[in-house]
């Protein structure tokens, strides 16, 4: 227990230095259209190379950063870097994760307005991803901020759908452009029949409500074909590519050959 507290404290101190020492970096994971197989966009994912512990997963250090009050600053750095990098792939959408903390404690509207001007970007190229947790907190404020973000021209996505408590009908109130179905549902499709049914229903209902659907964590051809067959819009996962540093992403884009995901006619066996 004491050791854990100590570890968190030292990570926290190191994180403060990390921003200044340029130890933070963004990797980008391609997002693929289900019908044509073309790369439509990328998701920016934060990476930290700790001088002692090596690369540390964001799931580990982001909560520490949030608690330490470092998130507004790190979040702004992420947005700025993603906007700068976006100039290198002008044809692609760029998805950026927002922390709930950025909704709670920061004048996120002003920050975004300033970033648009500073980086001279077109907000409609950017998809801001938030998780369900944000929606459960203070509905009024959150829907106002979300509406303001959309009015500025940004697109919005609900990340990790299915891991929280919200229902699709509840989500209608927030008018997201995109729903991202969490990897846990995708990876269960080959094992649990009900997962397939749930995923298929989410796709049908979401599309019926006018939203795009992205499937997260596609690792096999089976999963890719299933999602295409269900009428999903886009997908991302190790099957297509891991998150890549900028130069590797540029190489990937040069050599990538789209495989149209024609839904197979014969039944697909789970692998
Ligand atoms: P997320 O936004 O849901 O991002 C997707 C995560 O799934 C990424 O993990 C990605 O590397 C991983 N992933 C993608 N395809 C596959 C696959 O086929 N198989 C498996 N096993 N994993 C896959 P990562 O980069 O470790 O990020 C974890 C989470 O940390 C993100 O989940 C997001 O919630 C958060 N995060 C990452 N970058 C940022 C950031 O800049 N700001 C904030 N606030 N949160 C971030
Ligand atoms: Mg995300
Ligand atoms: Mg996700
Ligand atoms: Mg996640």
Automatic annotation (TrEMBL):
SUPFAM superfamilies: EAL domain-like. Pfam families: EAL (PF00563). Residues 8-257 form the EAL domain. It comes from the Bacteria. CDD domains: EAL (cd01948). One of its GO terms (molecular function) is cyclic-guanylate-specific phosphodiesterase activity. This is EAL domain-containing protein. It comes from Methyloceanibacter superfactus.
